[in-house]
Amino acid sequence: MAEDFAAALNKQIANEFAASQQYIAAAVYYDAETLPQLAAFFYRQAVEERNHAMMMVQYLLDTNQDVVIPAVDGPKLDFTDIVAPVSMALEQEKQVGQEIEDLFKLARDSHNYSGEQFLQWFIKEQVEEVASMTDLHAVVERAKDDPLHGEEYLARETIGDEGGDATAPPAAGGAL
């Protein structure tokens, strides 16, 4: 059963690295559109997703399980407007939330209590991620004809992970 959980967690590592790459692509899109606040938000999100993968790596190392560092498919690079990357990100966060819940169920059903405990933080994190992306989506949808309103929102508001969560699992290599 522990091997099943480790295999599923290795798959999630791939998903987290793919999300990081996708967020870099969104950030580059916004940078090219000269929307620095949106770009900075997605660059930060990319680092956060990478760190989530590294937390999972550290857990597998700590539990003496094999770690597979996967290749990932290339990210989507073309976006039709300023709303498209946030729409993609919102759907991605909902998907990750479901993936984390599926991992949690696997851990619980296989009596993997350390795996279940490890995933507690990720469940809380995904609630925050979906809520933040939902808010951002609403803002950019309203600001699609004047993107600077979206920029002003991000300059004024703090959304997403502010870092420094003492309850976060350790990341392999430290949170870089």
SSE blueprint and pairings:
Blueprint: H1 2-32, H2 36-62, H3 83-109, H4 113-142, H5 148-156
Helix pairs in contact: 1-2, 1-3, 2-5, 3-4
Summarize the structure.
Helices cover 70% and strands 0% of the residues.
Tell me about this structure.
This protein has 176 residues and is mostly helical. The chain has a single domain, classed as Ferritin. It has helices at 2-32, 36-62, 83-109, 113-142, 148-156. Helix 1 (2-32) runs antiparallel to helix 2 (36-62), helix 2 packs across helix 5 and helix 3 runs antiparallel to helix 4 (113-142). The radius of gyration is 17 Å and the shape is elongated. The two termini are 32 Å apart. The model has no long low-confidence stretch (mean pLDDT 92).
CATH architecture: Up-down Bundle
Radius of gyration: 17 Å
Taken together, the total number of domains comes to 1
Fourth-level CATH superfamily: Ferritin, core subunit, four-helix bundle
Total strands = 0
**Low-pLDDT stretches:** none
Features:
Ferritin; 176 residues; mainly alpha; single chain; 0% strand; 5 helices
